[in-house]
Amino acid sequence: MQFSAIRPKLLRTINVATVTTSSSPHHPSSVTTSKRAAEQRCLALFQDHTCNTFPKLAQTQTHILKLGLHNNPLVLTKFASTSSDLDAIDYASSFIFSPDADTRLYDTFLFNTIIRAYAQTSQSKERALYFYNAMLDYGVWANKFTYPFVLKACAGLRVLSLGQSLHGSVVKLGFDDDAHVQNTMIHMYSSCSGGIEFARKVFDGMPKLDSVSWSAMIGGYVRLGWSTDAIGLFRKMQMVGVRPDEITMVLVLSACTDLGALELGKWAESYIEKERVQKNVELCNALIDMFAKCGDVDKALKLFRNMSERTIVSWTSVIAGLAMHGRGFEAVSLFEEMIGAGVAPDDVAFIGLLSACSHSGLVEKGRKHFDSMAKKFKIVPRIEHYGCMVDMLCRAGQVKEALEFVKKMPIKPNPIVLRTLISACHAHGELKIGENITKQLIRNEPMHESNYVLLSNIYAKMSHWDKKTKIREVMDKKGMTKTPGSTMIELDNEIYEFVAGDKSQRQYKEIYEMVDEMGRELKRAGYAPTTSEVLLDIDEEDKEDALNRHSEKLAIAFALLNTPPGTPIRIVKNLRVCNDCHSATKFISKIYNREIVVRDRNRFHHFKEGFCSCKDFW
DNA sequence: GTAGGGTTAG
Fold first, then answer.
1. Does the keyword Repressor apply (predicted)?
2. Domains in chain A: ranges and CATH
């Protein structure tokens, strides 16, 4: 990466000239006290508060200029380090490194402070590295405190080659035996794409691992979605006798959440209680998120109600959790309760709220809150927010309105929004429009498998069988592979994973017999397989067979075989549940008298006595 | 004087 390219951009952003002339001119007469005293007063000012809002920033800038301290690096570094506002840091660094600044004052501490300020603020990681390079250019030595900042910035940029060159510098300067540096190195490597092996190498080479090292490594696995490995590493950590702290437990819970492993999550909770791990807000938030996403949203709600201190993350987790379970009314009223409690919603909270409205058909509520976003809360809606709105209109069957909405959007619709529209066109008979949008989408995204599936489904509904067959050929020609659907289930502290047509389980013969029996019972109960969704070019009977071997059905058969009658079944799908599995599961819940809780990619389905909580909107 | 690992959505 070229950091030399950053400087001109940096200077443009800061625009030194404007700042200097628009504020009060610094005539010598306006400086009434001695420079030294002013410097002290100014430093004391920053001690008391952080300058992270714009009015405060402007005020402080004027103040600095009035006192004639605009070229005093000490004052300016302090200013930068107490601020989390990027403009403020830019302002400070532009003066510190301006041509008339006193370079004799440049030292390691000064650079470390500026680098830290940039490394801690999002969207300024490049600048942190730019000033690290500048530091070396000025002949100022980096010390062991410099590297955690620099490595953190590199982690944010996710560039492996850069990380490796920094690693080289660390070794050359002899800071590679410092625990803080090593731990940050694990974090840096595991954040860069393709860096996990390097992270593990650092981790394995460390003479003494503390809870931070373990957490850094576990966190790396969690970020990659390697949740089973993360849990495995946690078990190893316990075996070697390192006590996990609250951050380790946040990561463990995060892995449970990813797996949808409720039993494991409950175990983690009791472990926290037993080991008296400090339950801070972040840990409570992770617990709420885990319970909501592992299927027990009532427990999540209970934890939330018992919290003494809540952050926006706590509110958002529980709002999004309720939305995911189709409990939109409760989600919306909780959002309104939050506003009433004086907690300002952020962009993420709005996504939770809008998805709640969308999943529960609350169109008017959704529109009202969407309008309030910009007007009342000054949050500019992002494509995700527009996406929620499109989704909401489509689910409510207002396809024409959804199409109008997209036309009027100030942002270009992304493929996700287009796919939402296409599904709605398919469902509500706007086949010609759907076909056109899909063709356009395939031109933009030719390697995305689900675009072809959408087109195939549209052709099936139009009875254009020849065109439908052709799609399969196109997909084969392009060498596209379907993401295999898989379903997980937890049984006796063990996690079982099924893929379609799976024969790797020891019990597979019994499972397939059970699937066949289920098929017979389903037909007797009046269920008709939805074969039009099968993309393969095979005859109807084989299609039924393909549907019966869906991972979800295998997992349900496995659960019926291995759990006592009447107990609920919980399964986790990696993709969205297919139409056929959805209607079959409704029948299964009735025939076998089981409550079946399915988590798919988007939300939860609670099947009971032949009905699903999603009311067929999903 | 300065340092390490974490939670919400998509």
1. no
2. 397-477 (1.25.40), 486-612 (no CATH)
